[in-house]
Here is the input.
Amino acid sequence: MIEDRAAMGPEDSAPEPTPEEVQRPPGPARYRWYVLAAVVVALLALPLFRPMISSYNYVLTLGALILMWVAMSSSWNILGGYAGYISLGHSVFMGVGGYVAGVLLYYHGISPFLTALLGGLAAVALGFLAGFITLRTRGPAFIISTIALLFMFLLMTDNFEYLGGAAGLPLPPLEVPQEWLRVPFYYAMLFIAFGAVWTSYRVAHSKFGMGLRAISEDETKAEVAGVPTRLYKISAFAMSAFWVGVAGGIYGYSIAFIRPTVFFTIAISAQMVLMAIIGGKGTVAGPVLGAVLIYAINEFSLVVFGATEFNIVIQGTILVAVLLFFPLGVVGTLRKMNRLPAFLNWD
Amino acid sequence: MGVMLEARGLNKGFGGIQAVNDASFDIEEGTITSLIGPNGAGKTTTFNLINNVIRADSGSVKFEGTEITRKMPHKLTRLGIGRTFQVTRALDDMTVIENMVVGSSAENLRGTFGSRMLDSETERALDLLAFVGIEKYAYSKAELLSYGQRKLLEFSAVLMSKPRLVMLDEPAGGVNPALLERMVDRIRRLNGEGLTFFIVEHNMDLVMDLSDSVIVMAHGEVLTRGTPEEVQSDGRVLDAYLGMA
Ligand SMILES: Nc1ncnc2c1ncn2[C@@H]1O[C@H](COP(=O)(O)OP(=O)(O)O)[C@@H](O)[C@H]1O
Ligand SMILES: [Mg+2]
Here is the structure.
């Protein structure tokens, strides 16, 4: 365990902060609520503008994907950002949701629009169990144990006939005219994104979230101060699984099949991490911005450079550049510099 | 006045080093007891064994008659044992007042997932920060505090949970004389109100001045125990310090 970092601090020479009285920080500007309202209205209204959007299905598919990633990286952030426990296996929960909803559709004909929430609950149950075991470790050992969890599920689904094995299960498509097919998926993902961001916001503003932040800074100190660290960590793990599971349920339906490699790969998990880190892990707005940024960068370089290898190099370069200038992610770094615009300040 | 804390046969080895060797002692309720001894004597480890930050190899601890040997540290905090660290461990990225409130127990789920800070907690935190004179920094990041102010922050944060026993690990270390005087005065006042203190300290003037009882450790063992006068005139104590020098 941790003890006695032997070096004594310097004599009392650190510069004194100068405020005279108790200075309460000003609350964030009210205009952020108007920005939020405008964004919500725009997102809700987007599918109504069918005649004005040339590639309607493409736009809605892309929108639904971005919303899904907003939800997943915001959920990952509860454990990885607030509590500081980096999971590289979070897509396991997406897979659990995907398979629960997919199997109920394939064998019993129940719509994932009804069962995705069930998939989320299954993910929570797994989150508790996995947290109970893996959270005995920390740092690199924890990261590796989350990857192991991912491989376990890849192996299991690969070899389980009932689940379709490596080939997976084809899902019957939603019976809606082709031109409207993307609309229900778009609204489902919008709902999931709202749910996930709201959950993240509530956690950030609760005593629970404060405990998680303390854990990420100094776990022993948090424990001695009175934070039930183990309970909090496991709860954070379980909570961060929920919306990822729900999103997985809807996602499988939207691509009309479930298959181990759709979910149980490190690349999918790493994407959640990358988005949270680029946007600013540990902040409410960071993962949201990160998901949007990554998609914006991808679309931009696709349009400019085409689907070539050069395009991938460009994407990588942009990401490195962003992290170079914003080491704590965009939101985290701007906040540290006191330059964060109020509409991104939800912490 | 009864026995508040009862340590029996505590042992802890780190590899080849027996950091604490069969240590037994009582802390009387309402007193200020100091634990002294040369560097490496096992004082901090003893603290860690009492509040279970480190698990003892053997031995037991009772607090107010209850067996607490295997209880998690946060439970002990709730039970009424507060503890500070030798090297301050403020949560730098959080504000001073968040450092105060972070450990306060939420009574139920609503409290846990409700607001970060209740008005009553804010009020109590500001009172305690004022008690040690750093209330004006309440909403600054803890990293902005000087070393001595951080010691004061830890000291006042420990009081948030309304402890009955406060364990301070070198509260005076690295603190300038003005802040030190303030700290000593606050310890006296709280002790006057009935709070029990268990203090590891190197500053002998302070120890002799404050303590009702002094426990001396060397090489992991409890060497002797007595009033400040008794301990000062005990040749073995001097030997222990000189032997280390
Ligand atoms: N976590 C640890 N790992 C290994 N050795 C330790 C650890 N903590 C303390 N020690 C050793 O145990 C002995 C007692 O240390 P400590 O309790 O910190 O002494 P004190 O607080 O009296 O200066 C020392 O020899 C120290 O090096
Ligand atoms: Mg020590």
Q: What stands out?
A: Residues 1-19 of chain A have pLDDT under 50 and may be disordered. Residues A 3-4; B 14, 17, 19, 37, 39-45 surround adenosine-5'-diphosphate (ligand 1) (CB under 6 Å). Chain A touches chain B through 48 residues (CB under 8 Å). DSSP finds 14 helices and two strands in chain A.
